[in-house]
Amino acid sequence: MTATITRPHEAAADLTALEEARAQLREAIDHLGLSEGKYQMLANARREVTVSVPLRRDDGELEVLIGHRVQHNFSRGPAKGGLRYDPHVDLDEVRALAMWMTWKCALIDVPYGGAKGGVRIDPRRYSQTELERVTRRYTSELMPILGPDKDIPAPDMGTDEQTMAWIMDTYSVAVGHTVPGVVTGKPISLGGSLGRRESTSCGVVHIALAAMESRGLRPSTSTAAVQGFGKVGRGAARFLYDAGVKVIAVSDQYGAVHNPGGIDLPRLEAFTERTGSFVDFDGADPLERDALLELDVDVLVPAALEGVLTSANAPRVRARVIVEGANGPTSSGADRIFADRDILVVPDILANAGGVIVSYFEWVQGNQAYWWTAREVEERLRSRMVGAWESVTAYAAENELSLRSAATVMAVERVALAHRQRGLYP
C-alpha cells in the first residue's frame, strides 16, 4: 500500500476546493524542499479578472450576471482551461480549478499553463439566443487577455461546441480575421479536432483499464458505477461498457438507475436522447443519486462535481478503484480513509487529462492548418495517457507516495523548473 505525504495540519472538516488545491501544493513544495516564496508564487494566480455581464433577456428585461477568468500560471506556455456556466460558480472554485489545470498540463507535458473561467448562470433557464448574448458579452469583456498565445478556453460544465463557436466568432470579428486557435472544443466545421468531444471520457477509460490491471481486475469480470451522465460520465460509461466492464449504475443531476446484472448502455443512451432523463427507463431500477457512490463495485468513476467523496461517506465506499473523471471529487479526509482501506484513487490531474491532450492536438492542428484522422488522434491520446500512467505509478512506487501525491509532485516540479529557468523579472 502506498503512503501519503504527511499533511501540515489535520482538518476537522473537509476543506473547500481552493483549500484542497493549496494543501496539495504545500505537500509537493515540502516534499521537493522548495522555499516558502515558491509556494506563495504557485499558490496564487498570476491574473484574475471578474466582470459584469449585462444581459438583455428575450422579454426585454435587463439582468446582470457575474463572470470570472483566472489565469493561474503562464511559465510553460499560454493559459488553458475550460469555461463553465453554473449557478454555483464562485471565484475560489475557479481559482482551484485553474491551479489544478496548471498541474494537469505540466503532468502530461503539454506547453500550457492553467486557467479556468465561469459565469454564474443556470443555462437551463435561458434561451439559446440569451446564452449567445451572454457568451459574446463575456468574451468581449475579456478580449485583452484572450488569444491563441495568451489564453485558450474550452467547453466545461454548461458549455459546449456552440459556446466555443460564439467565442471564436466574437474574438475573430474584433481582430478582423478568423482565429481558430483562440478556443478548442469547437465544431469540426470550424476547425475542431476529430475525437475532441469524447476525449476526456476516452482518457478516463484508458486510465481506468490500466488501474484495473494493476489490481488484477479483468474487464470481463468487473463491475463499475459512474456518477454523472454529461460530457465525461456518459462517454466513460459507454467506453467501459464497450471494453466489457459491467456498468451496474449511472446517475445524473436528477437521480440514478441501478441494475446488478448490468445496464444496456446503448438502450439507456437512446432513452435519454428521447426523454432527457432516466425517469421511467425500464432497463434498471431507480436509485437515490448519492447512494451510487456506496455501491459494491470494482470501479467507481465520479464524473460530476467536485467534493462528492468526503470523510463522511468515504467509510461506506466499497469500490476497489476510484478513477476521478471530475475535477476535485475527493476530499483530503476521504483520501486518507481510502489509503487506510487500500482503495486505489487515480487523481483527476491524471485520469481526466484526455480533454486537454486533444485540445492541445486541436490547437496544433489549427496552427498548422493540417488535420489528423480520428485514428491518429485516438492513438496519440492513448499513447499520452498510458505514458503518463506509467510515469506516475513508477514515481509513486519509487518515492512511496500515493498516486495523487506523486502526480502533484511531478507537476509542481516541472512548473517550478520553468520558473527557475526563466528567472524573475525585474
**Total number of strands:** 12
Radius of gyration: 21 Å
Helical stretch count? 13
The arrangement of helices and strands along the chain is HHEEEHEHEHHEHEEHEEEHEHHHH
* Form type: globular
Mean pLDDT value: 95
| CATH fold category name of the domain at 199-351 | Rossmann fold
Instruction: Give the class-level CATH name of the domain at 199-351.
Output: Alpha Beta
Q: What fraction strand?
A: 15-25%
Largest sheet: 7 strands, mixed
Helix percentage: 40-55%
Strand adjacency order, main sheet: 9-8-7-6-10-11-12
| CATH architecture label of the domain at 199-351 | 3-Layer(aba) Sandwich
Name the structural class.
alpha/beta
List strands and helices in order, with pairings.
Elements: H1 17-32, H2 36-43, E1 47-56, E2 62-71, E3 79-86, H3 91-107, E4 113-120, H4 128-142, E5 151-155, H5 161-175, H6 199-214, E6 223-227, H7 233-242, E7 246-251, E8 256-258, H8 265-275, E9 285-287, E10 299-302, E11 321-323, H9 332-340, E12 344-346, H10 348-351, H11 354-368, H12 374-399, H13 403-422
Parallel strand pairs: 3-4, 3-5, 6-7, 6-10, 10-11, 11-12
Antiparallel strand pairs: 1-2, 2-4, 7-8, 8-9
